Amino acid sequence: MQKTIPAQIKQRQSHEVNIVHMNIEGLLAPGQKLALNLRTRTLSLLSEGPEQIMEQQFSSNEMRVLVPILQSFPHYCPYESLLSHMSSNNSSPNSIARCRQRLQEALDNGTWHQELRSIRRALSSLRNKLHHFNLEVSTIRERGCNLTNLTSDPISQEKE
User: Fold this and answer.
1) What is the mean pLDDT of each run of 10 residues along the chain (160 residues)?
2) Phi, psi values for residue 129, rounded to 5°
3) Which of 17, 61, 70, 71 has its CA 20 to 30 A from that of 137?
C-alpha cells in the first residue's frame, strides 16, 4: 500500500509560491501530477518528462474553493474552511471558527442552503472543469467536500 502525502500549499518567507506541484496518489495515473499556478489560476495535468496533458483556467471563486480542497486531500475539507476562504483572502483559525459558528446558526435557523449558496455555485462550475482531469468533488452532507475520481480509471498518459 502506497503512502499518500497530503498536498500542501505554503508561502515562502519572502514571496508567495506561484506554482505548486502535487502528486495526488490514487487519483491520477502513475507518473502524473498536478501543477497549480496561483497567479494565472490554472491547473495543469503533467506526465513524466514533464509533458503537459491538459490545462484548465479557474475563476477567483473556483480557486478559493479548489485550494482548500487540495490542501485537505486525502481528507475532506470542512464547509467552514471553504466558507472562510470564500469570505476573505486570508483564511485563519479565527475566521474558520467564525464561519463554523455562522454555519451552526444557519443550521439551527433553517438557512443552511442560503449560507452555502456561494460555495455551491463555485463548486458547480469547478466540478465541470475538474471532470476534464477525471476528478470529482464529492460532498459529505453538512460536513464538507473531498476530491475523488470521476471514474475508477485514471487518465492515461497518452494524448488522443
Assistant:
1) 44 61 88 93 91 94 94 94 88 92 94 92 94 93 91 51
2) -75, -35
3) 17
Provide the β-strand partners of residue 117.
none
Query: What element of type H or E holds 104?
Result: helix 93-109
Contacts of 107 (CB under 8 A, 6+ apart): 142
* Cell, residue 148: 475523488
Going from the N-terminus, what domains does the chain have, and what CATH number goes with each?
Answer: 19-149 (1.10.10.10)
Phi, psi of 149 (to 5 degrees): -80, 145
Residues 6 or more apart whose CB falls under 8 angstroms from that of 39 comprise 18
The DSSP bridge pattern shows strands 33-37 and 42-47 to be: antiparallel
Single pTM value for the model: 0.81
